[in-house]
Amino acid sequence: MRKTTALRAAAAASAALLLATACNSQRGQDDKEAAADGACRGQQTTGITDKTIKLGGIYPLSGPASAYGAISDGVSTYFKHVNEKGGIDGRTVEFVVRDDGYQPPKAVEEARRLVEQEKVFAVFQTLGTPSTAAVWDYLNKRKVPQPFVATGASIWGTDDEHPWTTGWQPNYVAEARIYAKYLQEEKPKAKVAVLYQNDDFGKDLLGGFKEAVAGSGIKVVAEESYEVTDPSVSAQLTSLARSKADVLLDITTPKFGSQALAADAKNTKWNPLHIVNAVSASTTVLKPVGFKNVQGVVSATYFKDPADPQWADDAEMKTYKEALNKYAPDSDPANQLNAYGWAVASSLHKALDAMECPTREGLRDAVRNLKDVKVDMLLPGVTLSTGSDDAFPLETMQLMKFKGERWQLFGEPVDTRKEFGPPTK
Amino acid sequence: MSAVTEVLQQVVEGVGSGAVYASLALALVLIHRFTGIVNFAQGELAMISTYVAWQLVASGMPFWLALPVTLAVSFAGGMLIERLVIRPVQAAPELTTVIVTVGLFIFVNAMAGLIWSFTVKDFPQQFPDGGIDLAGVRVDWSTLGIIAVVAVVMGLLYLLFQHTSIGLMMRAVACNPASARLSGIRVGRVLMLGWGLAATVGAVSGVLVAPVLFLEPNMMGGVLIYAFAAATLGGFDSPVGAVVGGLLVGVAETLAGAYVDVIGADLKVGVPLVIILAVLLVRPQGLFGRAAVERA
Amino acid sequence: MSMNVATLGTDRARRLRAALTALLAVAAVVGAPFYFAPFQVFQLTMVLLYAVALAGLNLLVGFGGQISLGHGAFFAAGAYTAAVMLDRYDTGHLATLPVAAAGCFLLGLGFGVPALRLRGLYLALVTLSFAVFLPPLLKRLEPVTGGSMGLTVDKLQPPAWSGLAEDQWMYFVVLAVATVALLLARNLLRSRVGRALLAVRDNESAAEVMGVRLSLHKTLAFAWSAMFAGVAGCVYTWVIGFVSPDSFSFVLSITLLAGLVVGGLASLYGPLLGAAFVMYVPSVAQDISEAAPGVVFGLLIIAVMFVAPTGLAGLAGRVRGVITPLLTRTKPSAAVRTPESEPPSAPPAPAETAPADAEPVGAPPRTEKE
Q1: Optimal mutation site among A62, A239, A289, A332, interface B, most CBs of chain B within 10 A
Q2: Is residue B99 part of a domain?
Q3: pLDDT tens digits for C60-116?
Q4: Which chains neighbour C (Cβ–Cβ under 8 Å, 3 or more pairs)?
Q5: Has residue B246 been placed in a domain?
Q6: CATH code that applies to domain A172-301
Q7: Which residue of A202, B58, B187, C225 could cross-link C60, Cys pair, CB 3.0 to 4.6 Å?
Q8: By the 8 A CB rule, do C297 and A62 touch?
């Protein structure tokens, strides 16, 4: 009789399971992928018609990295704004956002949902290196474009086996080179202490920096890492202070950026030149520390910080703020992540405009064939450029120094390709 | 700076972190003493209390008025949660309650993000800037302030546990609710009181650490893990243990992270793990805990 | 199985019904990958995979009464074993399974020894700190583990003779692994080991007095349980093809425990239900509220625990407990008397009596019947 119980149990459980799967969604039809005629014959037109285009994005809307979910608000807002103006080349954009909680297996599931069930034209943005790395094999195998991933790891641009995937933001190596160049000019004998986040982001930036200063008079004399689960980085700062370095390179994400800046300000015996990386350079990170404590901090940027008063009268910034207030009234326009979303979405807009064929192949080629494309949310002088072997659209940044209550840009925008050549693996 | 002062400086740093862990560990100990469960949502409740204080201050209320209001709101909120969320599963196995607190954790964290966004907020620092210099070792006023408040809370809890009738009642309730009820204790009220008090102690912790850690919805997530370690090390039913445990964990991981190259800052989280294992193997009830006597 | 003559007739009918149910169940399970879209087959595969891990955790928590918040670490160990073998030594997928299983068994054994000294809460939190410690350790061992970038390895590919698509093949492989694992768990519990575990869980001192070797069985429970988690992790690598330290944060450990409790502790099919919850509910939560899926997910966990304090498996039993007496009034309670018959799953007693396979932890021991 035991058997019956077990059987009944198994039957009940599998019934529940299958029911859940069935209820979860209608049965997808996978085999009907659409193809184009004419000059673009044979190319995939899934997710795109003359009137519509369907895009899917995967962001952490829940879990420990949910702060980055704000990017999806910026992207959605941009598309809603464009739709109201008549869409992209007459096509209305439908943007499907899915949540992966920053977990790779979940990202795989959601990418498959978007491709196989939602039938999106492209997976426009996966966020974070782990999630992107987990899905890019799949997307490339399925020949689905994965343009402008929201992570700056250098692997997206240096890899040649994934033609459907491209980066967007300046990769961490490129950013590290900007700081290296700056130090070589300003403090050629600098001793550098580094605080970095112990993941791909921190390691990539630190590695790029070390590579760029190799052979010069600049030395990395101390490095301390932290985990995103750590409550605070103040102990690391105390350790770094022992090195008596004259430069502190601060490779952190926002909360830890604020902590590091505050801890540095508190320690009156050690006053290094504080370089904070772009991820934490938002005015929203510096303001809680107190403006008087962050004077003279150096960073680099490539898009306009919505919290910075110098862009208050900028036309694009005004459009952005109005649109955000209209379509995402709960979002904070001053949050730099919203502006990031807006900037990356308008970059995609340009790429979509440049497509020769309205197909997935067309987008893949357009994304890799951008020549000095201007995007209004980016800094003046920063443009998008790619090539068949260069999947880094942005490699130009400009240095800035914090003065008074705002960042002041200085020098010319630095094109790291010209200065250092393409990043290597 | 000599090597000795450098080490002392790191010790001060460790004590500072330890005090932060201890402040939340006190709330964990409190709720465990009252109800016998471990509350995963304790840190998040502290975080949301801190947001309440922040909101009050941001809307123009002076801090020293906002603080008591926040504590009162937290107390009421804690009791309400016990009544609405915990009471319905009180009869269920203990693990069910624990998982309910996990659900509460996820809910509260997401709720805070929804209301206040994930942007870092600056929380007003009540202790003066700067610090004192003791033979070359810099001690911030904020570190001293946190330690002082934690010591006071610890003292109050000690008095509550050892020298009041409530302490006796809650010991009876945590030990055996059925017998406690039979001897005339109103178990429901004691449990509500426990949740209210723990939420209040949590609120103190949140308000205390927010100027140092910076306020955002995940502020207490990392602290919670270390507070668990502190309470485990010190013994889950002793406020003194929680504080000693917190300080030990803080100092040990800071020193190991700074001076033992093999460990380094990335693996320093392993140091408390090793200490806890070593201590618990000798004293399974923690440093200051009382061994539970089981009746067969 | 010997048989009581008096119940022969009903028994035959019941057997027939059982066979029919079994047939239907098998048909449904085997047919699923041909009916559902590949993406949904993938989801089912993930459910089965998590169910293996939860079944292992169930051995420890549900039947052993020891709480572990560190099973994500064993899961990670299994996943990394497979990934490293595939990446560095190119061993082929099947070879990784026994290595991951054996490795995690030993790891569990190693953990089981100190775990003997620790009780309840303390054990839970020590295992939790182990789970917290693992990701930085994996990052540190960069030459082997690929550091924080993780490792990308080949997924399991269907052999040409099968004629199946990748997802279908993976589904069947994972189904096979899960079936073996679940049957193994069930048989373990029916064996001496299982009885000893239950006895220990329900009353340690009494069990010891009766001659159960406490330390041996508690350590073994840990080892078996770790092995299941390791197997699940290994299969995870086959299916996802990518591992990174941040995939296995302590949140995974907490999710596993939550999944098990939601599914139903000490129930044979609780792990399946729990795995389905872990897999499907987050996306349901997102469908309900796009702005804050976490709010809905948290509420759903709480709601399930309200409705089914002993887990979803217990809920099914409760419903049955209410309905069955109404349907089968004539059913004699004679079955209870014979040692061979099934445990009284639906006594006409009060509804809150949970069915035998979904007893809350700490319930009085029940007699085992073979």
Answers
A1: A239
A2: yes
A3: 998 888 899 999 999 999 999 999 999 988 888 889 999 999 999 999 999 888 888
A4: A, B
A5: no
A6: 3.40.50.2300
A7: C225
A8: yes
Q: What integer is the mean pLDDT of A276-303?
A: 91
Would the pLDDT of B44 be above 60? Answer: yes
Asked if B7 contacts B256 with a C-beta cutoff of 8 angstroms, the reply is no
Collect all residues from A whose CB is shorter than 8 A from any CB in B. Answer: 62, 64, 66-67, 69-70, 198, 224-227, 229-232, 234-236, 238-239, 242, 254-255, 258-259, 262, 266-269, 284-285, 287-290, 330-332, 334-335
pLDDT at C2 over 70: no
| C151 beta partners | C243
According to CATH, where is 3.40.50.2300 located in chain A?
Answer: 33-170+311-394, 172-301
pLDDT at A159: 81
pLDDT of the residue at C348: 38
A105-124 mean pLDDT: 93
Q: Tokens for C2?
A: 């010997």
- Assigned domain for C23 exists: no
pLDDT tens-digit profile of A226-235?
Answer: 988 889 998 8
C334 and C279 together in one domain: no
pLDDT number for residue C84: 95
pLDDT band for position C215 (50/70/90)?
confident
Joined tokens for residue C190? 């029916």
Site from C60, C119, C121 to mutate, B interface, most B CB atoms within 10 angstroms: C121
Q: Are A165 and A111 in contact (CB under 8 A)?
A: no
Nearest to C128 among B114, B228, B284 (CB): B228
Length of chain C in terms of residues written: 370
Phi, psi of C152, deg, nearest 5:
-105, 125
Domain check: are C189 and C315 in the same one?
no
pTM here? Answer: 0.88
- ipTM, two decimals, is 0.90
Mapped onto helix, strand or coil, the DSSP state of residue A146 is strand
In a domain, B198, yes or no: yes
- Residue C28 inside a domain? The answer is no
Closest partner residue to C305 (CB to CB) among B100, B107, B284 is: B100
Q: Assess whether C186 and C324 both reside in one domain.
A: no
The answer as to whether B279 is a domain residue is: no
Range of the domain at C332: 308-363
Superfamily of domain A33-170+311-394: Response regulator (3.40.50.2300)
